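Sharing in case it's useful to others searching the archive later.

Someone asked me privately for the predicted structure of tRNA1(Val) (adenine(37)-N6)-methyltransferase, so I'm posting the question and my answer publicly. Question first, with the sequence:
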Amino acid sequence: MFQFKQFSVEQDRCAMKVGTDGVLLGAWSPIPENIFSVLDVGAGTGIIALMLAQRTNAEQIDALEIDEEAYEQAVENFENSPWGDRLFCFHAGLDEFIEEPEDEYDLIISNPPFYTEDFKTESEQRDLARFADAMPFEDLVEAADLLLSENGIFSVIIPFKEEEKFIALAKDFDLFPTKITRVKGSPTTEIKRSLLAFSRNVLENFPLDELVIETSRHIYTEEYIALTKDFYLKM
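And my answer, the predicted structure tokens:
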């Protein structure tokens, strides 16, 4: 079990455990004004939806998870949280979910699978959680366009090397960057991740910055502590 300040996450049945990417995205994502509804695509343990329940007063927080074990675990984590009445998980793939869309969402958020290399592990469940062919970026962006409310925000975390491609893809669906943060593990390492937020409005001078996680092993930067201190117990 992973214990946060206001909730806990059981993760023994999930291929993708609680990790820095999910926590970063859940803490970093911009929140639209007067937010009513949130959709977490590819929920895993439910960590991001739980963080959004803590951060916002959104009345409807839906999550989508295709893997049965992960889905059942997310449901348990939601029920055991202080916000169980606002959290709901669908056991479905994105393609099924968008066939008959019933709702628009003010915030669509996803830590999508993004291992596109040609190797696979022995665990089919883990592969599903980690490989982009389970949920191609094109499908994700198309779904965001379909389900995002007029003034909504679409937030993702992806490998930095995919950033340019992802922004171009979003532009094809008239979704434009509203905030970008590039993430490095330490001051001397390469940029590894991109946190991207999109809206339907073109912003000429949107914020673009860099976040360094630690200065040396387990010595976290002030920026990383400020971002995650409402969640991690030891921050």
